[in-house]
Amino acid sequence: MQNPFHVTTLIGTRPEAVKMAPVIIALKEHPDYHVNILLSGQHEAIAVDALKPFDLYPDRLIARHLSDFSLASQASCYLTDLTKCLQEQPTDLILVHGDTTTGFIGALAAFYLHIPAGHVEAGLRSHNMKNPFPEEANRRLIEPLCQLLFAPTQLARANLLREHIDPGSIVVTGNTVVDSVKSLANHLPAICEFQQFEDANLDDKRIVLVTTHRRENWGAPMRSICRALQILVERYPDLAVILPVHPNPQVENVVRPILAGHPRIILTEPLDYETLIAVLRDAYLTLTDSGGIQEEAPSVETPALVLREVTERPEAVDAGSARLVGTDTERIVAATSELLDHPAAYQAMIAAGNPFGDGKAGERIVQAIGNWRAGKPLEAVAKIE
Predict the structure, then answer these.
(1) Which of 151, 195, 247, 296 could serve as 157's disulfide partner, Cβ 3.0–4.6 Å?
(2) 187 has catalytic annotation
């Protein structure tokens, strides 16, 4: 029997857990792959919880004892602990994801140890190194260190080619988040059946899911977002806002004093992934500065207004399923009001469809890994439907 091919999958944040899950599941279905799931500890508890709906559990947690949560402290701790871990366990390929400190350090550690690396969700660009910060820089630093680049869209592939990345290292797969959302959304109950919303009287309400946490929105921009929400719930009596409050004090200390106490603004603790997808699916629209929700919203036909000036996911904006509205109070109110007042504008965003794939990205990534091992072109995979 041939020795198994050892693939280490590195996960730091909850979005990474959700997006890596389809790849891990597809790898586990092949008997010639042995998969290790490593967690960096960046989002320790919620990343573990995000894997559970997929019946996945981490094999090892690294970097449990950070001295602080500065970017420099995180990076140095992850690099030391991950290097030790990779030296102790067989790894023929490491897979990193996205734009986090975990992903960058994973690629760097692999480079130092001469371990091939693959980047899931490669090629996204905002073309602004300060927005999102530090994510734009992380992506640009990861990709030259990797031998396999799994671009979710043709635009992401084009971004890599403009940076003179070897075309033979790139394959367009679709975004794995579509796989995850499709596997969950149709099997989840209505949100009124979830315990935290049982007494919220949401049956006759148009729900707006709001998520805001980005560093560039801390301070005055976040206060501006909160003022917009106050205006909207007063203007529309049938509107209800669900806002999971990020635990970072830079977020919590702004959001709660401004919005707490309004009967139609529901401030919750961070939602587990299944609940989040159920809320997103049942929402009339979402206001978000999250990268992942820009991809998840069109997967459940929910229009997205993006609380940022630039996005590294312009496919949804170009398609019409998302709009950039920034953080100015009046601009947010105007864009939201248009969708609430004009059914044709609202339906046009729903009809724009999903530019991020067909739910088979995990399978394509594993097929591309097999091609790479066999010396075949990576792009000899099933095309996106």
Answers:
(1) 151
(2) no
Question: Which CATH code of 3.40.50.150, 3.40.50.300, 1.20.1420.30, 3.40.50.2000 fits the domain covering 5-175+357-374?
Answer: 3.40.50.2000
User: Catalytic site residue 234?
Assistant: no
Annotated active-site residue in 43, 157, 213, 313: 213
Catalytic residue list contains 55: no
Q: Catalytic residue, from 223, 246, 262, 323: name it.
A: 246
Which tens digit of pLDDT belongs to each residue from 84-137? Answer: 999 999 999 999 999 999 999 999 999 999 999 999 999 999 999 998 899 999
Is the Cα dihedral 48, 58, 186, 123 positive or negative?
positive
Amino acid sitting at position 272: D
At 178-196, the pLDDT tens digits run: 999 999 988 899 898 888 8
Distances (CA, A) of 176 to 2, 122, 233, 299, 310: 29, 12, 35, 11, 22
Residue 114 falls in the annotated catalytic set: no
Task: Express each pLDDT in 277-335 by its tens digit.
Answer: 999 999 999 999 998 899 999 999 999 999 999 999 999 999 999 999 999 999 999 99
246 catalytic residue (yes or no): yes
Q: Is the peptide bond before 53 cis (omega within 30 degrees of 0)?
A: no
Active site residue 135: yes
